[in-house]
Amino acid sequence: MTFCRITGTGGYLPGAPVSNDDLVARGIQTSDEWIADRTGIRFRHFAADGEQSSDLALHASVRALEAAGRAAADIDLIIVATSTPDQVFPSTACILQNKLGNRAAVAFDVQAVCSGFVYGLTIAEKFIRSGSHKCALVVGAEVFSRILDWEDRGTCVLFGDGAGAVVLEASDEPGILSTALHADGHYHDILSVPGQVCNGAIAGRPLLQMDGQAVFKFAVKVLGDTAQELMSAAGLPVTALDWLVPHQANIRILQSTARRLDLPMEKIIVTVADHGNTSAASVPLALDVAVRDGRIRTGQHVMLEGVGGGFTWGGVLLRF
Ligand code: ACO
Questions:
Q1: Residue 216: CB within 6 Å of ligand 1?
Q2: What is the pLDDT of residues 134-155, one digit of tens each?
């Protein structure tokens, strides 16, 4: 049986941090106090004009490849999770492949909004475990600043841009212990960007809209349920978890999830204060931060969890 393991991580945040006070200075009717109290967010990063998801993905991928000791030519599968692709087509994964100078990998995008990275990682695991592929690059990359309504203070203060990447390789030892993916399209309209390209124009509203309270309740429920599902599929109690790396939407969602799981906050990797919500990039960015600062170490039990528009949700339990 072929297993797979993460052998390298990388992250990239564009430009200088933008504080809550910087948003006030830009004319948004908000305050540092309101944003920090309700969400835990203090900073986010925004891509420069012309900087695309594939550019952020390239920086994160180069760092993940370096950490894994791999060259771009070693990669035989590229999956990019994004809801803010460079173009309608080709996929951001193919654009990234070209920027990396790789011409042999299978390359495609996954669109599961903030769950996109755990969807991509789960798909890559299935490719590798089947024996068809050996070395995957899985990336979450977003320029959410391009789809925000700057007149809607209830949403525009929440998001930022960034990219995170991992290299996933075939291994004799199990690195991924369990996976879980879910979707329920019944909830498609509580978080959406309903616009589309149609006959050379944008049809519908091309900006993010959200029912914040409905999203909050849904996220807490499914993050808790999925964590239980992943641990019981691996035959482990929640107390065996060393680290939870959840989607970074809001500190209050993370605190409520910790309470539901009876997990101390010290075991939760939190980057939302510095990154904001970077959608599909948030989980691999948080993972990379905690690997590079030495908190996440080889052999530990690490759970990655995503939840986002669709609604979609899921997770991956690793022995790192
Ligand atoms: N600054 C100041 N005041 C604000 C702001 C702001 N940025 N945004 C809203 N307000 C005001 C509103 O106008 C309202 O004022 P009013 O009482 O005078 O009418 C008041 O604050 C309360 O507004 P609500 O929308 O009810 O605020 P709520 O308490 O629900 O908090 C929040 C909003 C923080 C978005 C919350 O619903 C939440 O955390 N939801 C989770 C959603 C989330 O994190 N989504 C991320 C994307 S989804 C995902 O990644 C899974």
A1: yes
A2: 999 999 999 999 999 999 999 9
Q: Is the pLDDT of residue 2 over 90?
A: no
DSSP string, the chain: --EEEEEEEEEE--SS-EEHHHHHHTT-S--HHHHHHHH---EE--PPTT--HHHHHHHHHHHHHHHHT--GGG--EEEEE-SS-SSSSS-HHHHHHHHHT--SSEEEEE--GGGHHHHHHHHHHHHHHHTS-SEEEEEEEEEGGGG--TT-HHHHTTB-EEEEEEEEEEESS-SEEEEEEEE-GGGGGGEE---EEETTEEES--S-EE-HHHHHHHHHHHHHHHHHHHHHHTT--GGG-SEEEE--S-HHHHHHHHHHHT--GGGB---HHHH-B-GGGHHHHHHHHHHHTTSS-TT-EEEEEEEETTTEEEEEEEE-
Q: What is the pLDDT of residues 309-319, one digit of tens each?
A: 999 999 999 99
Q: How far is the CA of 9 from the centre of ligand 1 (A)?
A: 33
Active site residue 114: yes
Q: Are residues 11 and 131 in the same domain?
A: yes
Count of domains observed in the chain: 2
Average pLDDT over residues 249-259: 97
pTM recorded for the entire structure:
0.97
Question: Same structural domain for residues 45 and 168?
Answer: yes
Q: Any catalytic annotation for residue 247?
A: yes
Domain that holds residue 245: 177-319
Based on the fold, state whether residues 53 and 141 are members of the same structural domain. Answer: yes
Atom of ligand 1 minimally distant from the CA of 250: 44
Pocket of ligand 1 contains residue 272 by CB under 6 Å: no
